[in-house]
Amino acid sequence: MExxxxxxxxxxxxxxxxxxxxxxxxxxxxxxxxxxxNDTFKKLEFLSMINVxxxxxxxxxxxxxxxxxxxxNNRISGGLEVLAEKCPNLTHLNLSGNKIKDxxxxxxxxxxxxxxxLDLFNCEITTLEDYRESIFELLQQITYxxxxxxxxxxxxxxxxxxxxxxxxxxxxxxxxGPPEGYxxxxxxxxxxxxxxxxGSELGEGEEEVGLxxxxxxxxxxxxxxxDYVEGxxxxxxxxxxxxxxxGLRGEKRKxxxxxxxxxxxx
Length: 266
Fold this sequence. Notes:
Elements: H1 3-11, E1 21-23, E2 46-48, E3 68-70, H2 81-86, E4 92-94, E5 117-119, H3 131-138, E6 144-145, H4 158-176, H5 182-265
Parallel strand pairs: 1-2, 2-3, 3-4, 4-5, 5-6
């Protein structure tokens, strides 16, 4: 697929001035030059053209906001002065796998004052004696060469850099302290929790008292039932005694009457 066609596909009905990233990897350049990319991509910050058979940067448009440029696995051997003119704010440049052979081809990068990271993996220049020392001496503005600084410390990836920025924001928020009224809300929440705990304890106590009360009532009911049964038995015994007494009195009256009759006969 040609680069111009690929650019149209990447746009997907979006305006070029809205694009901040553009990836054109593995497409094909016409005559080794850039086609379809123009100055309307004025907000572009990341551009990747890996393995596109690019040999010249002469037709690179003005991309003043471009920070990262990926150009690995192409045929570039020189003409890097265009970068300082068209992409003055470039911070990361990847030229790995190109035709860069000597330091003179890189002298133009001295004008990229914001350049911090440069990659030259698999370029012929990496075989030169004192390669790293020479590059750091030539391009004193860069911090990382092929992913490492002068003390062989590995460069953080872009994700780690973003995390560091996020951590700084979090630290600033912590130093600022909690918003007004935050402590009062915490105190109110603690008071509510204490009330809830006291209520739960009281509820448990009431439940225990209720159970004890019910058990006592059941015992009292049983005692009352026993008293009632005993009372009934006493009443029955009293009635029986009264009946016996009445029977005895009746017999006595009968005997008295018989005795009186016998006396009359006499």
